Amino acid sequence: MKRFFIVSAILTSFFIVSTDEIYAHQPYEIKNSTDQTIIELSDATVSHAYYGEFLSDQEEIIFDLKGFSAPILQFSILIPDKSPENIFSPTELPEVKLLTESKDEMQFLPYERIGFYEPYSRMNLIRVITYRDTNYNDKSARIIVKSNKNCRFVFSVGYKEIFNRKYSSGDTVELGSSGIQTWYSKTSSIEDNPDLEESLEIKQEESSLRIIILIISIITVCLVVLYLFRNKILNKS
Questions:
Q1: d(CA 187, CA 197)
Q2: Which one of 59, 127, 186, 237 counts the least CB within 10 Å of its CB?
Q3: Can you tell me the distance from the alpha carbon of 150 to that of 30, in angstroms, rounded to the nearest whole number?
Q4: Which of these, 39, 45, 13, lies nearest to 162 by C-alpha position?
Q5: Where are the beta strands (DSSP E) in the chain?
Q6: pTM (predicted TM-score)
């Protein structure tokens, strides 16, 4: 009988982990609206991850955080650790504006570079913005994520892992593991954006030029050292 319960528990655990409805976060795909993309969250302390892609600069996505079951406001912006996003400069990555109920306004720029591995979806990400306030006493907040370039990104908010309840609404669709992998695996829209492609080519050329200069410098130093060493030996003889 004991063996039966152990086997049942293992099979049940395997089923729960394998099903597409159980997540480390509650993941959603952002559906960019032609007018204004707005996403509402009834409890901003519950962990959610929103996967999106900006197609140009000056796009905005609004997150209206309507409630907090604890006085903690926590969010971050991540990008895939893949080309082209992982070679973008901070001025090319998304930025964030926080508007509190108390009329305070805070601006967050993507100056962090913290590697992050997401085990559920097996993704390598880079955290570029992080914010945590453990004494947030307002009842609501608005977060605006603005683009500076064509770029994939993840907006992560909250910290509580709660399943089987829906807190998010707006311009989103629920996302399973296959959808997350599609977002992660696809190439950004470089082929449809000649300016972005040209920018990446310039950066690659600059990187190659730096490597060539470094190699030439090392060879030059070695030749100078050999020349001085040779002269020293000849002078002694």
A1: 12
A2: 237
A3: 15
A4: 45
A5: 26-30, 37-41, 48-54, 60-65, 73-80, 95-100, 105-108, 114-118, 123-133, 141-146, 151-157, 168-170, 172-174
A6: 0.70
